[in-house]
Please model this.
Amino acid sequence: MKRAFPILAVLTALLLAYAFYEAIWVAPMERTMGDVQRIFYYHVPSAWTAFLLFSVNLVASVIYLVRGNAKADAVALVSAEVGVVFCTVVLVTGPIWARPVWGIWWTWDIRLTTTLVLWLIYVSYLVLRKFSDSSQTPKLAAVLAIFGALDVPLVYFSIWFFRTQHPQPVIGGGGSIDPRMLHVLLINWLAFSCFAFLVCWSRYRLELLQREVEEAESLESLSGVSQ
Amino acid sequence: MSSIKFLYAAYIATWVIQGLYLGSLVRRYGRLRQRMKDLGKGK
Model:
């Protein structure tokens, strides 16, 4: 496993470079927005990756609640943390795209607002995990994660049910996309997903190590007290 | 600001955010390594 990580890291870096090249030089230019539309190749894959990570967080949280498995709890924490990073990218690149296209940085549109709420829910989840010392924290966090995950389909499908400024979904929403653009979009999503997997892997190892150190420290302090 | 600058800004912002997070992971690894060293000394 230790050998696989650097190999996967190099492959992911190459894939990210190739995806960047495709997004900037190969994908056709959109007629109305021009080059700024290429933000799409970072904005949408980041959103999909965040949704994927929040779904992993949901599954791991349910497993933790049902079985009390500590590794599932670690996976839930890691996926939420990395998911928040990708969701932050979405919330930053969205307004940068909106400014030249809509003429405004932000509007309280249903898609934008539900995405901001999603980000706030998972930031609250991380704050709860960081600052609460109670032994019940993982259980409370798992319940919060289940409620948080309810916002993911709301974010995705909100543009079907409400009048919105945001474009219709690329897949499954009746929208159409040039096949060459779709190809570049999927390459970028693959690259972002591989990158997210590697980051999660590192963070998961860090989390397990941190728990081992905390356990060793508490054992040491206990042995200090007994002597 | 021309629209191409918004494109650059979005791509740079993406990697700055990811880089800051990776940096925080490296710092956390460093702190953990220090705690492990301290534990080793305690024994």
About this structure: DSSP finds one helix and no strands in chain B.
